Amino acid sequence: MQAIFTLSTIAATASAILPYKTNTFTQNLDHFDPLETRTWSHRYLTNSDNWDGSGKLQNGCKGPILLYTGNEGPITAFWSSNGFMQDVLAPKFGAMVLFPEERYYGESLPFGNQTYNGDPQNLKYLTTAQILADYANIVTSLKANTPGLENCPVIAFGGSYGGTLTTLLRTTYPNIVDGGLAASAPVGYYDPEHWSEHGVDQFTWADIASRDYHEADSKCMPAIQAARTLIEKTDTATLLSLFNVCEANGLGPTLKSDLFSYALESMPQLDYPDASPPWPVNDTCTKLIQAQTIGDQALLTAAATITKRALGVPFDFDETASNCMATLAEGPGGIPGDGPGGVSAWSFQSCTETLHCFSSSVSKGNIRDFHFDIETKANVPCKKLFGRGPDINFLANEFGGYKIADNSDKTGVTNLIWSNGGMDPWHGGGFYPGGQLPNSTTPLLHTNEERGIHYIWIRRGAHHGDLRGPSPSDPSELTAARTQEEAIIAGWIQDASRK
């Protein structure tokens, strides 16, 4: 997942209006070994502009904490894409905003510049359990040492793997976090043993990714396949110039059309109404279909332009390779949705806990052919990189997988919103009422009143679009979703203040 969100320019959103203050916190290297006493400097961002007493609660709390559970990237990259928290909820609730960075990302490197020196012992502390404990620890310390914060409710927010972290933080530390909005949290994708019970299989991610193109225009997928075929027939030197990629391997490790396919696979989750251009899937289809009617050169140029725009590739080709796109460590030609690539934090997580066991098939109407095989696609590269292979059921065994939501009695997890968008391939791993994937008749909101669990379904929604700041171009159901979420969260805050 990581490479898609850090590279794509069409994921940009209107910046949140709040500035942030950069802080550091001395964090335990290992929260579960009492004999391990080493620590590291954990970066986190805060804003207290609205934490001015206007949200004072009856228990003496000056105002709640809105906590973003930082995921796979520098925390500064997530600050401006969470306008719902900052521009809408923080002023209304008089809240403090807190964004801790995920360990091993950005500036939160437990071993500094030696973190990725090739020693696997340096990476073994990168686990979901350690990340959750980091966040619990930092919240507990802030509340204990900040006057007016000690009795304050904490509401967690997260998108994608961050939504998984929000889900698991509320599940694991209900005494610390009072509720959570887990947007586009693909927790079910990490429980492949129970996929069939929930209407999920190895092609679900690719099926959803390609469905948006089919729905945009019936001529779109034929144009995509024509472009892929044309790319394969074109000489490498021409492609390097058109796509502005530094080396042949940057086009893809197996096919020259891998990079183009990767851009197309990433686009549906970023199909936002306020992207540049708006609704990029529809715009892509229009450009490819029109180019195909003109001729091969126009189609090839359109494919390159679309790829460069989606992945942030420089448009001006420089033969000195000073401004071309370097080969991506993860993504093109690999597991759909990203997986093990070069040595990086997300690659290590994929090789331990967060592997995506996804396949893709052109014969099924998908963008490309890819057959997932645990040995060749995961065990071999992971052992080469880190000396070990992944446990594809680890997160489910550790935290519950689908059982987190399936538990229908009153003793299960409470106070969680799981929101998902219909255009987002990651919604295939989401949680839904009845345990089955949504369809055209699924309502916007379904609530389990006994447990305080809420399922929000945004048919024309992309990847955690409800966490983004409101835009005049938002479809009405996205606006309605945020309204519902705000009301639910307000109730949690009031309930927590009465305890």
Could you describe the 3D structure shown?
There is one protein chain. The protein has 499 residues and is an alpha/beta fold. The chain folds into 2 domains: 2-195 and 396-497, 3-Layer(aba) Sandwich (Rossmann fold); 203-356 and 358-391, Up-down Bundle (Four Helix Bundle (Hemerythrin (Met), subunit A)). Helices cover 36% and strands 11% of the residues. The protein has 16 helices and 9 strands. The protein has helices at residues 2-7, 75-79, 83-93, 128-145, 161-172, 204-216, 220-233, 236-243, 258-266, 280-294, 296-311, 345-350, 374-386, 394-399, 403-406, 476-497, and strands spanning 21-28, 39-47, 65-68, 96-100, 154-159, 179-183, 416-421, 445-448, 453-458. The chain has a 9-stranded mixed beta sheet, with helices on both faces. Helix 5 links the parallel strand 5 (154-159) and strand 6. The longest helix is centred in the C-terminal third of the chain and has 22 residues, at 476-497. The two termini are 39 Å apart. The model is unreliable at 1-15 (pLDDT under 50).
